[in-house]
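Archive maintenance. Older records in this collection stored only the sequence; we are now back-filling the structure field for every entry so that each record is complete. The fields below show one back-filled record exactly as it appears after the update. Entries are processed alphabetically, and Peptidase M20 dimerisation domain-containing protein is next in the queue.

ARCHIVE ENTRY
Title: Peptidase M20 dimerisation domain-containing protein
Organism field: Saxophila tyrrhenica
Length field: 480
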Amino acid sequence: MVEVEQVRSPASSGAIKTRLRDFLLPPLPANLTPYLYEYSMEQHSSGVQHSTADDFVMVEHATQGGTKAKESYLDAISSAVEGISDELRTISLDIHDHPELQYKEFHAHQILTDYLRNQEGWKVTPSAYDIKTAFVAVFDSGREGPVVSFNAEYDALAGIGHACGHNLIAIVSLGAALATAELLRQKDIGGRVVLFGTPAEEGGGGKKRLLDAGAYKDNQVDISLITHPGISPDAALVRTAAYSALKVEFFGKEAHAAARPWDGINALDALIIAYNSISVLRQQTQAGDIIQGQITNGGLRPNIIHAYAAGRFVVRSSSKKRLEALVKRVTACFEAGAHATGAELKVTPGMSYSDHVPNRALGRQYRQSFNRLGGRIPTEELDILDAVTQASTDQGNISHAYPSISPNFWIRSESDGGEQLGGPHTPDFEKAARSEESHELAKRAAKALAATAVGVLTDPDLLADAKKEFEDMVETEGRA
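Back-filled structure field:
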């Protein structure tokens, strides 16, 4: 299996080394003729690359035509992001230092909307679509053109704060949106930029609520962009799992467990049968199918036949269609418990997220820009292999409604000695999300994301390709 690893070079604290390890390189296949195997490069903030001979990486080389014309835009985008770097850093640390759970992100909502109100040309709607901590901010160039959108997240996790790095997600989308708007202003580019403040990604489905309320449709969105920090390698074409939460309740009949157990109907037995049935089911599920469960109520006392039992279950799969089929099989396990014991069953669907399907046309634009900024995302073929995750996000629902990408950008979560520490949803990552180095890496992601948006605004073929690919995906995978 291909494993792409990004590590910090000990020789230079500002360098990132990307290497392809444990991989015997075959001759180049015909479909990879634009690609060359090269020695790995150390990337510095200056953009200067130095080859080393200890390992190697496969790199996609930009071809002439189309990309050269965008280099001046990338310079202007970089300048725009750097010009607000200190302000973005202040906002990031402020959000990080005031962690708020889903739909209670009042502080983050306030500082982001206050900041946007002070930016020239932006119209800000706080508490948008009857969601108190959502907002919509729009920059209109006044000229006809596409509508590019960015999603900002800012909710935290219970007990461990911003251990998913949503403070960084917020400033990447904010910085990218502002830089894109600045390019529209500087270069007389037509179109609009929309920044959505999307609360409650951590299980609350803020984007899904905005989507269902018509926020994206009302703003005539053409594409949707977001990023996410992590400890896995930089990647453009991140694909996430589809997710569904279920609350399960069994209703039986209470009886004395010693004196007259035959008078009872044991709801806990029904739940245990269901739980064990799911354990057996896992042997016949496909790779990428995940079923997790928790008993939330196992009865009141051990000496009674339990009249009530309940649990929560999470089901994940690699696609929305496969998830629907897997949920049916899991539900059959619940029904088996009820049938075997005579208990009544109630299944309450909870939040569900669709799988995120990355748009390759947008991903190519992001990858090219990211690599020109010193990044090392590999070829599209390797990017697809490396960018699959079992995590889930409500950006997945957006990707079934509009062309979308949700690239991952690597940040360091390591000990002083270089030992790998925890990734997202760990205390280690909470610390990593506020480092100065992480801020610099977030800025690079913001620049590449803005360059993707500007590409859509200035290149009709790119937008057409993205939309054609999206429509083809809809036909085969269905809408959220």
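Update note: The domain at 69-239+356-477 is CATH 3.40.630.10 (Aminopeptidase). The two ends are 31 Å apart (CA to CA).
Entry marked complete.
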